[in-house]
Amino acid sequence: MPLNENAKSVPAAKPAANGRNGRKIWLSHTGLGGLDRCPRCFWLQYRQGIYQPEGIVSRLANRFDVLVKHYFDRFRGTDELPPIVAGHVEGRLESPFQEEYFYRVDDQYGFKGKLDECLVRADGTYTPVDHKTSSSDPRIERAMYASYQEQLDAYAFLLESNGKPTSGIGHLIYYYPDSTEDLHNGVQMAVVVKTLKTDPLSVLPRIKRGITVLEQPIPDPSPECVFCIWRERVGNFIPAKL
Fold this sequence. Notes:
By secondary structure, the chain is an alpha/beta fold. It has a single domain, classed as Lambda Exonuclease, Chain A (Alpha-Beta Complex), CATH 3.90.320. It is 29% helix and 19% strand. The chain has six helices and eight strands, in the order βαααβββββαββαα. The protein has helices at 29-37, 39-48, 60-73, 146-161, 203-214, 226-235; strands at 25-28, 92-93, 100-104, 109-114, 117-120, 126-133, 169-177, 189-197.
């Protein structure tokens, strides 16, 4: 699906850092997700470099992600797909694999993203892939997280704007520790591929919305933002000078 002819791309080189001190502001799918949660926190992140506090985070998923990517790399440059997804996806692994993509909006703003994986079909189209670890059985049909759809849309947008026509779909590959009575023989993993249609044209309006917010004075917080609620309540108890 070709993008608007005014779309611009930049080489996949490391961009200037965050949006302070006159540097270009590089938005991302994750960052725009923050806008949906709280406009004020979004503004503070990109305009002032003030991020929401990070809670306790398990790094196990990060380690598993590294292992999966190394496993896929074993099949890169061949016509063979990794056996865990063979028959469930179409194409071959992109080789060499381009992980990072950038889209230039103007001199002040851009959009960036990092793919987990990408497939190339026989017709020359590209299919973005994202790996997901799951705490619930992905074989049971549930409502898809909207952010997952937007993530694949963003990847398709970046591929298209960098001259790589997409197949119109994207894959989410779920990895789930399956129940087993033989744990001493290793953890059995259920691997489930979910295929979603992608809409790269839906991304530009999200980018423009983010820019509109950043170009205005600091916005009001979301009524449901726990960080802003905490800040307001604490401010009522702590004087300006102790």
